[in-house]
Amino acid sequence: MNEQTMPLGTVLVVDDNSHNLSVISECLDANDFEVLIAKSGESALEKVTYARPDIILLDVMMPGISGFETCQQLKRNPKTANIPIIFMTALTDTESKVRAFQLGAADYVTKPFQEAEIIARVKTHLRLHQALKKVQITNNILEEKIHQQTLAEEQLRATLAELKTTQSKLIQAEKLSSLGKMVAGIAHEMNNPLTFIEGNLAPMEEYVQQLAKAIEIYRTNPLIPSEYAQEQLNSLDLDFILKDIPNVLRSMKTGTTRLEAIIQELRNFSHLDQATEKIIDIHEAIDHTLIMVNHRLQASPSRAAIQLHKNYHLPLSQVKCYPQLLNQAIFQLMLNAIDAIDAKVNSAQELSAPEITITTQQQENCLLISISDNGIGIAPENYGHIFDPFFTTKPIGQGVGLGLSNAYQTIQRHHGQLHCQSTLHQGSTFDIILPLKHQG
């Protein structure tokens, strides 16, 4: 072999015949193979442990360990099991050939040797062996990648499960936040009628006591009251009491009627049959929702009361929808409009007349509900994210960014669309578009 030529591979030749070793070695060397030699099976087993040849030419008939036994031991060892073995034998019986292949031989050549045949077989099996090694390396790489991908998928599934759990908690927190705002509105609305009732309880109690006293006087003086009894009756001012009692009862009745109306509004707002579509009056639904935010529209130390304008232009206001979900979507959009106005005031921008306008109209085969405000508006860099889950520009602790996202998903569930038009520092308009073709 030329010293400057890279060897095609390393061949271990095992034969107890020195002449055979010499002939085969010269032949292989002339064809650019690196040659190692061993004169016995024992020597071959020892040499293989450190030399690691690419292919082995192994004589069958040798003293000591035969070629068959040597092959068997090589194939049992995981470190040498994949080395191709070509038997060299003078045996021509079929049984010997079959045994060779059963032991794991790759091929065999018969003596006397044909140099061209040996070189051809060695090159062929060497190429196959090298190709197999490349395949094994590729398989190992693929197995490692599959293992890493499996780990990544497991981690992804764990992360996804954690995210779903976190999302559920955040959605629940958002629902509780909305519920808190709604309860605050209900409490505010109930406060006035309760004040009516509480304010009249004391006078009514006094009137009842006075009447009870008068009844007692008449009971003890059943026919003609004495002069003392008459003076006591006159001091009770029964005429005023009898005249004022209807007024007190009417005021209390007004309070109880208002409470009944608020409770009914709450029932209308929070339909329990959210999974069932129903035909409702959209204007009534909007009005029910406005009751829940009325307290937020009132004047505060930092701003004037928010003026609410309702422009209802629908010829037919009956809509088939999921009532609770649609009410909550409108509720979220109203809260968003109020928050935008408060944000504008808190940023020290002038806003002498805060306003929210709700408009309904029919456009071709669609129902349009528009909610407009003259609040702070939306910054251009945030415009594309307002419906993204958990996106919020509010300070930490003032929302988790699910209000508009939930409203968007609700409108999509109704086969509709939710769009926004906004100008920074001037205000925003949110349009709910519901297709009438889905209305029953």
TrEMBL record:
It comes from Leptothoe spongobia TAU-MAC 1115. It catalyses: ATP + protein L-histidine = ADP + protein N-phospho-L-histidine. Residues 185-438 form the Histidine kinase domain. This is histidine kinase. Its EC number is 2.7.13.3. GO terms for molecular function: phosphorelay sensor kinase activity. InterPro entries: CheY-like_superfamily, HATPase_C_sf, HATPase_dom, His_kinase_dom, HisK_dim/P_dom, HisK_dim/P_sf, Sig_transdc_His_kin-like_C, Sig_transdc_resp-reg_receiver. CDD domains: HisKA (cd00082), REC_PA4781-like (cd19920). Pfam families: HATPase_c, Response_reg. Keywords: Kinase, Phosphoprotein, Transferase, Two-component regulatory system. The modification 4-aspartylphosphate is found at D59.
